[in-house]
Each structure stands twice: as structure tokens, then as C-alpha cells.
Backbone:
């Protein structure tokens, strides 16, 4: 089954910057895909299109077989509940504990309290932070904070996880820990798309690599490395 | 389902955070609505006065109770002999009471009447209304007291136009003041909401990211705006209540005295005041909702 499909997708921003040019790409259920390319090549734009944070200029995007281009505004939250998102800057709320940060994702979609407790505990065990449940983000290392943000993205068990340079702020050893968690999430059947320009990570993982250059796909390799 | 506790705690922590701005917003709403309320009550009263003056005859000469029929006939003949007078009609105590009951049907005033407190009168119409002061003066002796047998002389009709134009001027000024204050109130509430949105921008970003619905993101802010406006409305009601009991009654007395209107003409606004109160509270809430609505439109995009 096609989890994410881009058909002739072009994105031109209001200031006439062409971020993506006629992109065609299919990502199947359960795949782990690296989106690589230099800064400004369109990786973040690609991810933002999937969660409808930006609108494509032309072409169609399908998520789990559904065309999301004409999605009503009121249906966007439903789309996002099925897509977990992780970013370089974690986006944790500083005045909430680790538990509350993760629980927040379930609270705002109206999950009942007992379910929240169970799911948050489970996902925090998955990322190995169950013992930090009552800490605040500033009491955690950057790597731990990123694991909390992965926990929050995954707590609702979405079929898709998008990660935009999740290791961008982390040292190589910490990054390795993050990749282990993402692999584990992928192993349980989640489709993972990760934008990065971290050579070492891509090379060590040997997964599918899609390379962007100035908004165009210049390479799509089954078990690829970062570049030549 | 979402627990309502969530929205309340969000609202009140926001209100505490922007305490000063919130107070300014609430006060402005309160003052605005107070003026709206006061003006409504005054207009209602003035309308009442105008209507009762209109229903009055040009010149009414009230007679003392127990006047002898000789004196009554004498006065009537006297009035008829004046060339300015077009017609004279005698209204007995019984007729007057009947008429008063008709005019005030359903009013509380009727319950307070016992016996017949309404005097008999001559209702006089003039060929030339301009001469009214001249004619009215003939019912006074040279010391300024009413002549024998006469209890009171009322001629209100020429005040109607004056009252109308004064009310119109006050009305225009009041509406301008209300418009300015209303705008200030909206701007102030808008601003407190803007600050709350700013203070919670990270949370809003995360909420949208994990798929919170638009309404879920908005409701705390709408509630905050509504709350500010509603409290402003309540404060205005309290202000109006005290002014109503103090100033308005004095003002009414003043009107009665200066315009020489029968006191009973002023029924007062007590009958509608409860609707004015409800209206002010609702209006306050709506102003708050409206203001936060535009702040949300501006600062919270999907
Ligand atoms: N909101 C925006 N408005 C205008 N141009 C943008 C915007 N976001 C990104 N761009 C431009 O689009 C191109 C691709 O950006 P981006 O998708 O962020 O690339 P990457 O994530 O690979 O660094 C860049 O040239 C960037 O300047
Ligand atoms: Mg980027």
C-alpha cells in the first residue's frame, strides 16, 4: 500500500522561490526513507506539504491513498492525528513535565485520562525515559529532549512518522541513540520519512535514500548512502 | 470528550498573566455599557414624559377638591370670556380617574391609588398656543399664588419639542461617546487576547501539529474574551443600579419640577430595568467574543 505519494508536485512560495519542482515519489507502508540534500534543496517543504502546513502550487499528494489536496480545513486535524512529527528544535513546552508534554498531544485531541496515562507510560518506556517522567525539559540533555519529542509524536501510534533533521542539534553518539528509536518505531510497522543532511547516519543505516537538489529528485536508491 | 476544566484553567491563568491589561479592558467595557444603559433608561423615561405630555391638553387647570359649584361656574364663565380661548371642557374627578386608569392600565401605580386623589379640571385649548403663558398667568394672584379654587395649572405641550431636541442632542453626543468607548473596549480586549496568544504561541503550534481542532485551539481565547466582556457588563449593571437609585430619581424630580409636569407622568424605567441589565450582560459577552474572534482571525492561522 502506498502511504505517501507525490504526483507532479510543484511548490512555489509567495516570493516566487521554487522549492519543489515536479516531484513524483511513492513511499510504501512500513518503509524507512531518508530525504537528503543540501540546505535549501526543499526537504522541509516536502515534509510541510504532507501535513498541509503549506499548500502545493500544483500536482496531487496522497496520504494513505487519500488525496489531501482538496481536504477541507476542518479535516486537517484528522490528517495530522495520523502523522507524527519530529523537528530539529524539539518544540517541547518548558513549563510542562515530560509526562505532561507527551500527554498534551492526547489531551488536545480529547482522549480520556486513563487512556492517556497508559499510552504515555508505554511510549516513554519505548524511548527509554520512563524514569524522567516528572522532570522538566530543561533538566534533560538535548538527546533526551529529542526522545521526548519523538515520544510525543508517536504516543498516538500514527502510521506515519515524519522527522525533519531530528539529529541536527545532536552529537554523533546521541544521534545514534535517536536513530535506534526511529528504527524501532519503523520495525513496528510505522512508515518513517526522515529529512537529514547527516552523512554518517545515512551511510550507517543503509536504507532507501531520496536525494533532492534545488527542488528536484536527483537520486532514489534502495539501500543507499548519502552521496558519492 | 474534552474536560471543561481544561478551558477554565487556561482562561484564568491567562487572566492572571495579563492582570493589568485585563483590568483596563474590563473597566472600559464597564464604562461603555454603563453609558449605554444609562442612556437607554433616560431615553425611555423621556419617551414616557413626552407621551404623557402629548396626551395632556394644552392647558389644564386643576381645581381644589371640594370647590363650591358656584366658584366652579364662575371660573368657567370667566375662562370662556377670554378671547384667546377656543374651548373649555370640564373634567370631573370621576372622569379624570377613569382616564388615568385607562392611560396606566397594567401599571403598578394603580395599586397605590386609594380613593380618588385626582382633581377635577378645566381643559382649555387656545386659538394661539403662543399666548399660553399669558393665559396661564391669569390663574395666579399678584403674590404668585393660585387664585381661589385653583390647585394647579399645567401646560406641558410646548415643552415637548424642547424636550425632543434636548434628547436628540444628548443622544447624538452619547452615541459618539459610546462608539469611541466601544472601539477602545474592543481594542483593549483584542490586545489582551493578542498577548495571551503570544504567551501561548508554542502551545498553539504544538496543538496544531498533533491535530487539535481549530475550535479546541480557539475556545480558551474566546472564553477569555467573553469573560472579560461579561464581567465588564456585570460591573456596568452594578454601576447602573446605584446610579439608578440615586441620580436618576433626582433627575426625574428635577424634570418634574422644571417642566411642571404632573408627577404621575413619570412612570419611571423600573419596568424595563431588568431587561436593560440582561441586555448589558449579554452585550458585554458579545463584545468580548467579537474582540477575541478578530484577534484569533489575525493571529491564529490553521
Ligand atoms: N516560507 C517560505 N517562503 C519563501 N520561501 C521559502 C519558505 N520556506 C522555504 N523557502 C525557500 O524554499 C527553498 C527550500 O527550502 P526548504 O524546504 O526549507 O529546504 P531545506 O529544508 O532542504 O533546507 C529555499 O530556497 C527556501 O529559501
Ligand atoms: Mg529544512
Residues:
Amino acid at each position: 500500500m502506498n502511504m505517501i505519494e507525490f504526483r507532479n508536485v510543484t511548490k512555489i512560495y509567495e516570493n516566487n522561490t521554487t522549492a519543489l519542482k515536479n516531484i513524483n515519489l511513492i513511499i510504501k507502508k512500513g518503509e524507512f526513507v531518508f530525504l537528503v540534500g543540501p540546505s535549501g534543496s526543499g526537504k522541509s517543504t516536502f515534509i510541510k506539504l504532507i501535513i498541509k502546513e503549506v499548500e502545493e502550487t500544483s500536482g496531487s499528494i496522497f496520504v494513505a491513498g487519500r488525496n489531501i489536496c482538496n481536504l477541507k480545513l476542518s479535516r486537517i486535524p484528522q490528517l495530522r492525528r495520523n502523522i507524527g512529527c519530529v523537528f530539529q528544535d524539539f518544540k517541547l513546552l518548558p513549563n510542562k513535565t515530560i509526562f505532561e508534554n507527551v500527554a498534551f498531544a492526547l489531551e488536545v485531541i480529547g482522549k480520556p485520562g486513563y487512556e492517556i496515562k497508559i499510552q504515555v507510560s508505554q511510549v516513554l518506556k519505548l524511548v527509554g525515559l520512563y524514569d524522567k517522567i516528572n522532570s522538566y525539559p530543561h533538566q534533560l540533555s538535548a538527546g533526551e529532549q529529542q526522545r521526548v519529542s519523538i515520544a510525543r509524536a508517536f504516543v498516538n501510534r500514527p502510521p506515519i512518522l515524519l522527522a525533519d533533521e531530528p539529529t541536527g542539534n545532536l552529537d554523533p553518539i546521541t544521534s545514534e541513540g535517536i536513530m535506534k528509536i526511529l528504527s524501532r518505531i519503523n520495525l513496528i510497522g510505522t512508515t518513517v520519512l526522515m529529512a537529514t543532511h547527516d552523512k554518517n547516519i545515512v551511510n550507517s543505516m543503509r536504507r532507501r535514500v531520496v536525494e533532492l537538489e534545488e527542488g528536484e529528485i536527483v537520486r532514489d536508491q534502495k539501500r543507499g548512502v548519502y552521496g558519492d | 470528550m474534552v474536560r471543561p476544566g481544561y478551558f477554565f484553567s487556561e482562561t484564568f491563568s491567562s487572566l492572571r498573566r495579563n492582570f493589568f491589561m485585563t483590568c483596563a479592558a474590563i473597566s472600559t467595557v464597564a464604562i461603555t455599557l454603563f453609558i449605554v444603559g444609562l442612556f437607554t433608561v433616560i431615553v425611555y423615561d423621556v419617551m414616557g414624559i413626552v407621551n404623557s405630555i402629548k396626551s395632556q391638553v394644552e392647558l389644564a387647570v386643576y381645581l381644589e377638591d371640594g370647590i363650591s359649584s358656584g366658584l366652579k361656574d364662575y371660573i368657567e364663565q370667566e375662562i370662556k370670556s377670554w378671547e384667546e380661548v377656543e374651548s373649555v371642557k370640564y373634567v370631573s374627578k370621576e372622569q379624570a380617574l377613569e382616564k388615568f386608569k385607562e392611560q396606566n392600565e397594567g401599571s403598578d401605580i394603580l395599586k397605590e391609588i386609594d380613593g380618588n386623589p385626582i382633581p377635577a379640571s378645566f381643559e382649555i385649548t387656545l386659538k394661539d398656543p403662543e399666548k399660553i403663558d399669558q393665559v396661564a398667568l391669569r390663574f395666579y394672584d399678584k403674590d404668585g399664588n393660585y387664585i381661589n379654587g385653583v390647585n394647579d395649572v399645567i401646560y406641558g405641550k410646548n415643552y415637548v419639542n424642547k424636550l425632543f431636541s434636548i434628547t436628540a442632542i444628548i443622544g447624538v453626543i452619547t452615541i459618539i461617546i459610546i462608539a469611541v468607548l466601544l472601539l477602545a473596549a474592543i481594542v483593549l480586549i483584542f490586545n489582551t487576547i493578542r498577548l495571551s496568544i503570544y504567551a501561548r504561541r508554542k502551545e498553539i503550534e504544538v496543538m496544531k501539529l498533533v491535530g487539535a481542532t481549530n475550535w479546541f485551539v480557539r475556545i480558551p481565547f474566546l472564553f477569555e474574551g467573553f469573560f472579560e466582556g461579561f464581567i465588564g457588563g456585570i460591573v456596568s449593571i452594578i454601576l447602573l443600579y446605584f446610579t439608578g437609585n440615586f441620580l436618576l430619581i433626582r433627575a426625574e424630580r428635577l424634570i418634574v419640577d422644571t417642566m411642571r409636569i404632573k408627577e404621575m407622568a413619570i412612570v419611571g424605567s423600573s419596568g424595563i430595568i431588568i431587561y436593560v441589565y440582561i441586555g448589558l450582560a449579554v452585550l458585554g459577552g458579545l463584545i468580548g467574543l467579537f474582540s477575541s474572534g478578530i484577534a484569533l482571525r489575525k493571529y491564529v492561522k490553521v
Residues 4-53+163-296 of chain B form one domain. The CA atoms of residues 30 and 236 of chain B lie 5 Å apart. The mean pLDDT of chain B is 82.
